[in-house]
Amino acid sequence: MSFTLRSVKVPPNSVNLEEARSRVFDFFRSACRSIPSIIDIYNLDEVVTKSQLRSTIAAEIRKNCHVTNPKVIDMLLFKGMEELNNILEHAKQRHHMIGQYVVGHHGLVQDLDSKDQGLSDFLKNFYKSNYF
Amino acid sequence: MALRTAILRHIRVPVQTLTLTGPKQHEQWSVCGSSLRFMSSHDDHLTKEEVIDRVLSVVKCFPKVDPSQVTPDVHFQKDLGLDSLDNVEIVMALEEEFKLEIPDKEADKIDSCNLAIEYISHHPMAS
């Protein structure tokens, strides 16, 4: 814990929505610029492309697009920054990256086949993912 | 001193061949002059057509964009129906394609194909 706290310093709060908004874009840019080293660290070049990872980051940010409170945006940015730092410090393993950012929330098992239709929801959720 | 004479000797070599062999070698010399400029980083500069082609292919490859709508003067948000985050994503894709790092203030201004082509074709480090 002290490890992450040392590497992530808390910036002062955003004054207004506009500043928070530009901070989100700055964060997105720095995340995009670290994609090559992330692919390098976790050997992801055979499972994902840079543009796919970029879209995944954008999708994660877009999940919170309805938030309008600058303080909440700052908090979410801090969490994102922390996550990015953890990833770059190799605090995760390859399967964490693949599970969270490559396969995403669809999961490895997708019911495309007709015989999957009868499967119980419990099992589908079980197969899907344990990242929420 | 020894280094200087060594370098001078090295440089003089093509000049001698030029004067000795005369007009026959002249063509070859001019080819050397344009394509083999050592220590020069500006030699592999992109042509405008190449920049346009590559910018358009990057924009067309963007998942939310309909490739048939992309033209050199299309506006990302007004014409292609993208939002500001998509705009930043496209600029990042362009950075990766041309191996640039566009400063944040200028990246904010790039909101159409036209501006992106203009910026990249005037950038000395684009490749």
Describe this structure in words.
The complex is a heterodimer of chains A (132) and B (127). Helix content of chain A is 60%, strand content 0%. Chain A has 132 residues and is mostly helical. The mean pLDDT of chain A is 83. By secondary structure, chain B is mainly alpha-helical. Chain B has a domain at 2-10 and 44-121: ACP-like (Non-ribosomal Peptide Synthetase Peptidyl Carrier Protein, Chain A), CATH 1.10.1200.10. Chain B is built from six helices and no strands. In chain B, helix 1 crosses helix 2, helix 3 crosses helix 4 (84-98) and helix 3 packs across helix 6. In chain B, 20% of the residues are buried. The chains are: A mainly alpha (132), B mainly alpha (127). The interface between A and B is medium-sized, with 16 and 15 residues.
Report the structural category of chain B. mainly alpha
Query: Distance between termini of chain B?
Result: 37 Å
Beta fraction of the residues of chain A? under 5%
Overall 3D form of chain B: elongated
Instruction: Tell me the number of helical segments of chain B per DSSP (H or I, 4 or more residues long).
Output: 6
Mean pLDDT of chain A: 83
Give me the secondary-structure category of chain A. Answer: mainly alpha
Largest sheet of chain A: none
Low-confidence blocks of residues of chain B: 17-34
Q: Outline of chain A, from the CA principal axes? A: globular
Question: Could you name the CATH homologous superfamily of the domain at 2-10 and 44-121 in chain B?
Answer: ACP-like
**Helix percentage of chain B:** 55-70%
**CATH-scheme architecture of the domain at 2-10 and 44-121 in chain B:** Orthogonal Bundle
Overall mean pLDDT of chain B: 76
Pair of chains with the largest interface and how many residues each contributes: A-B, 16 and 15 residues
Counting DSSP E segments of at least 2 residues, the number of strands of chain A comes to 0
Report the radius of gyration of chain B as a whole number of Å.
22 Å
Radius of gyration of chain A: 17 Å
Question: Major sheet of chain B: size, sense and barrel closure?
Answer: none
Protein name (chain A): NADH dehydrogenase [ubiquinone] 1 alpha subcomplex subunit 6
Membrane topology (chain A): Peripheral membrane protein
InterPro entries (chain A): Complex1_LYR_NDUFA6_LYRM6, NADH_Ub_cplx-1_asu_su-6
Organism (chain A): Xanthoceras sorbifolium
